[in-house]
Specification:
This protein is of the alpha/beta class and 276 residues long. The chain is built from 11 helices and 10 strands. The chain has one domain: 2-enoyl-CoA Hydratase, Chain A, domain 1 (Alpha-Beta Complex).
Length: 276
């Protein structure tokens, strides 16, 4: 069955918990325009749902997400930043996640690379499979982080460690990510979703005790952005003016911002994903 006949985004429900699964496993859940649009639409709908109290975000296959689909970008050109297309399609993942009133748990099942790493950082809590790996390869492919990574990552793990990841592009394994405070816990691959669901249900029970009112996370995220306690992604990390970062039509994404050298895998890996 072709990718076009498969839903790009799977939405499941387990009582008050919604599970959002990026579903491009052959492309390591690379963030195409269509997938990002679906994610924004889904998270906005779940934010308004009266019977949702928590959200889990994960990926199908061996990746959480390997980042923005640079193959698509190199062929047709598209926006890497935030904003809306003329047809109304909304691509602003950071704003949609930030406005969600429910706690968002990132269940990191595999590779979370660059743009995929940024999506993980949009979540309130991260749980990781023992097979999870994180990497920031913006510098290797000549791109700028526009969803808050440059602000969020150093505040979570410290400036020096964040610099190490961003300046080398190396992988961060799940155990080290837990030790550095990036993820709350590491579990076996087959335990990831059960643990994530149990945690989400516990959070949902607290929301019910408040009479179904939102947790105030959206307001807290906004205040945190203003005060610098978390990511000021929307104000500081987005490019100025429209917030768009355009990829020239049919040009190499490896050089589209800084003229960086051609893409190379992280130094501590022999087999890096082809989508960054």
């Amino acid at each position: 069955m072709s990718e076009q006949s498969e839903p790009l985004l799977l939405i499941e429900r387990d009582g008050p918990v919604a599970i959002m699964t990026m579903n491009r496993p052959k492309q390591l859940n690379a963030l195409s325009i269509a997938l990002r649009t679906e994610m924004v639409r889904a998270i906005r709908e779940l934010s308004k749902a009266t019977d949702v109290r928590a959200v889990i975000v994960t990926g199908a296959g061996r990746a959480f997400s390997a980042g923005v689909d640079l193959k698509e970008a190199g062929q047709s050109g598209f926006t890497l930043g935030a904003g809306k297309f003329s047809d109304g399609g909304d691509l602003d993942l950071a704003r949609a996640f930030g406005a969600c009133p429910w706690p968002i748990i990132g269940a990191i099942n595999g590779f979370a690379i660059t743009g995929g790493f940024e999506v993980a950082l949009m979540c309130d809590v991260l749980l990781a499979s023992s097979e999870a790996k994180f990497a920031d390869t913006h510098g290797r492919v000549g791109l700028m982080p526009v969803w808050g990574l440059s602000q969020k990552l150093p505040r979570l793990i410290g400036a020096a460690r964040a610099k190490e990841l961003s300046l080398t592009g190396n992988y961060l394994d799940a155990v080290t990510a837990e030790r550095w405070g990036l993820v709350n816990r590491v579990v076996a691959p087959d335990e990831l979703m059960p643990v994530a669901k149990n945690l989400a249900l516990e959070m949902a029970q607290v929301a019910d005790q408040r009479g179904g009112q939102g947790s105030g996370l959206a307001a807290e995220r906004h205040v945190a952005a203003r005060t610098g306690l978390l990511a000021d992604a929307l104000e500081l990390a987005h490019p100025p003016q429209s917030g768009f970062l355009e990829v020239p039509h049919k040009t190499s994404c490896r050089r589209q911002v800084t003229g960086a050298a051609p893409k190379t895998p992280p130094l501590n890996s022999r087999a890096a994903p082809s989508y960054w």
